[in-house]
Amino acid sequence: METAFHDLLRRMPKAELHIHIEGSLEPELLFALARRNGVALAHADVQALRAAYAFSDLQSFLDIYYAGAAVLLHERDFHDLAWAYLQRAAADGVVRAEIFFDPQTHTERGVPFAAVIQGLASACRRAEAELGLSAALILCFLRHLSEASAQATLEQALPWRQHFIAVGLDSSERGHPPEKFARVFARCRELGLRVVAHAGEEGPPAYIESALDVLQVERIDHGVRCLEDPALVQRLATARTPLTVCPLSNVKLRVFDTLADHCLPALLDAGLCATINSDDPAYFGGYLLKNFVETFQALPQLGARQAHGLARNSLQASFAADADKARWLAALDDCFAGLI
Ligand code: ADE
Ligand code: ZN
Questions:
Q1: C-alpha of residue 291 to centroid of ligand 2, in Å
Q2: Confidence grade of residue 269 (pLDDT, cut at 50, 70, 90)
Q3: 3-328 in CATH: which number?
Q4: Extents of the domains making up the chain
Q5: What whole-number distance in Å separates Cα of residue 151 and Cα of residue 158?
Q6: Measuring from atom 9 of ligand 1, which residue has the nearest CA?
Q7: Which residues, 6+ apart, have CB-to-CB distance to 296 below 8 Å?
Q8: 8 A C-beta contact, residue 279 and residue 23
Q9: Atom 4 (ligand 1): residue with closest C-alpha?
C-alpha cells in the first residue's frame, strides 16, 4: 500500500465500536500481571502463549481468552489494561472508543465489580485528559451464562450506572439466542441504557432478527451472516442499523477463509451501515489501523471513497454527543478534501 494512503487511513478520525477490553490483553502484559499478582500460567513464556493462538472457531478462542483474563485481579490491573489499549487506539487515529467489558468473567472469580469498573473508568478519563480520545464503556452479559446471572450482574452494576453508557451481549453465540435475555434487556432500556448485541457472527440470521425485535438493539455486533437473508439485508439498510464488522477476527475465527473472501464489499454494496473494528486485537493480530490496512490491501475494490464511508459510519453510529460527532465528521471531510 502507498504510504500516502496508509497515512490517510491512520489520520482519518474514526470510532472503534467493537473492542473487548479483555481481548486487548497482550501476552507481554499478561505475563507481567501474572508475575505481579502471583498467578500461575499454563504456558512457559510469551512465545509459547502466542503459539497457542491458532483458533478453529469462536469457542476455541473463548476458552483461551477466558483463561488469560485470570491474571486481572485488582483495580490497577484493569486500569493498566485499558490504558494500554487507549494509547494504541489514539496512535491509530481513533477519536472515540466504545469499549466492551465482561464483568461476569471477573466477578465469577471473586474480583469485586467495583475493582473492574473503577479501573476501566479511570483509564477512560485519563484518555480524555491526556490523549484527547473520548472513551465510554459497554457492559456485556455473557450469553453462555443464565438470565439470572445477567440480572444479578445488572443489579451489581447499578451503583456504577454513570460509568457505562450501554449494555451488550457476547460469548458463545450458537445455542444462546437473544430471546434468552429479553427481560434483562427490557430492564436496561427502562434504565435509559443504550443496547447492542453480538449476532450473526457464527449464529444464523434469525439471531440478528431477534436481537432487533426482542432486545431492540441499536447496533448489531458482527452481523455478517445477514447476507444469507435478503429481506433482513433490506431491513438493516432501510433502518441504517450499524453493523460492527471485525475483519481480522473473522479470519482468525474461520468465519471467512481469507480477507480476500470477506463480505465487507458486499455489505457496503447492499447499502448497509458497516464499520471496521478490531474485536480482540491481542488475539487476532492487530488493532484498528491494521484491520483497515490489511482489509483494504486484500480487497482492491475498496479505496478512498470506502475508507471515508466506513469512518463516517463509525462516527455516526457511535453513542457520542451530537456536537462531538459533528466536529469529528467535519474533520473527517477535511481529511478527504480533494480525494473523493
Ligand atoms: N467475546 C470476545 N470476543 C468475542 C467475539 N468475537 N464473539 C463473541 N464473544 C466475544
Ligand atoms: Zn466481539
A1: 14
A2: very high
A3: 3.20.20.140
A4: 3-328
A5: 11
A6: 171
A7: 1, 5, 9, 302, 303, 306, 307
A8: yes
A9: 171
